[in-house]
Structures are given as structure tokens and as C-alpha cells.
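Reply to dn_fold:

You asked what the input looked like. This is it:
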Amino acid sequence: MKLLLDGGSAGGGSINLLRMKKCPYCAEDIKDEAIKCRYCGSDLLAPPPATSQPSQPYQETQPAGRQVGEGAVQFSHSGMRYLLGYGTDYFGIWDRNVPGGAAQRFPRTDDGWRAAWSAYVSLEPNNVAVGVGGGGVEYRPPSSAGSPPSAGAPARPVSAAWWALPILLGALGGIIAWAVTRGRDSRMARNMLITGLVVTAVLGVLRATGSL
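and this is what came back:
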């Protein structure tokens, strides 16, 4: 607040002290008792304008957290907690509860695959084949009937046409189909062998009873 001298009338010689204040809108000096600014015309009885808050600094969006399965090119088997698959140069076991890369890694070789499969089935005995990922090779577990496919070689699916051998030729056809397909799908090969034996047994019974 300011005090200004007012000379009053020319003949009176009296001095008046004027109390002054600044307009909250235009910052000009006005009388303390003024209810309206003579400069900007603002109503001084209204609440003064709120002081603007400083703008918040721009914050970049933080990157999303790590994801389960990082580094995997393709998953071949899935269980309740663990996933089996491979990266660009390794076989790996991923933990669903631990985001990021593989919890265990093995060399991208036949021996590495055997070690990865052995470790995986000890963790997930009730796993299922999935083959989910960016495409490429699906590796199958080694079996007693045949060795696992070579690292980097695609696993070719077994054609359903092989079922014609055990159905038409019986045990002989089953043996042939089993020998040819056991390295690619041991379960299907075993089922075709069993089918051939069953067909031969049924035909033998029918011939013995004179039904044929």
C-alpha cells in the first residue's frame, strides 16, 4: 500500500494523504477504497484471480516391464509353470513366474536338446507340445525308439497315408510303417505297429472259425 500527497485546493493549502493499492488485475495504482479499477474496469469486490500453478514437467512414458519368454524364437512344449523352446543359438526353459529370458540354457546341439528335454520333463512331466512362436523348427523329445532330430533340421510331419500299410498288410505293413516313421513320431509309429498286429490277429481268428 502506498501513501500519496494530495495538494487539495489551490487556496486551501491543506494536504491530504491518499492511501493507494495496486489493482490485482492490471497492477496499476488505485485508491484504497476503490471498488472498481479506473484503468481496466475490473470489479474489485470480486475474489482476486487465482495464481496459476506452474505446469508439470513432461515425463516420458516408462517402458513396459519385462515379459515372460524374452529371447524365445519358438516354444515347443508347455506345462503348468515352465515352457520349453529355443532361441537363436540355444535351447531354453522359461519360467512363467519370472519375466525375462530363459531360466536355463543349453547348447543348440543334439546333446544340448537331450539335456534340455531331460531337465524340462523333470520339471513338467505332464507337458504338451505347442509349437507356438515365430515359426521354424519344432523339436520333439528323444525316445527309446529313435534319436531326436538334428539341431537345425526341420521335423517333418508323418503322412496319414502310412496307415494304409498296417490296415491292408497287417503285421508286415505295421512293421514297415513303424520302421519308417519311428524317428519322426514314435507314438504314431507304435500305434501303426499295434494296428498291424491286431489286424493280423483278427484275420487269423476269422480264418480259424471259418468266417472267411
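Residues 160-208 form one domain.
Hope that clears it up.
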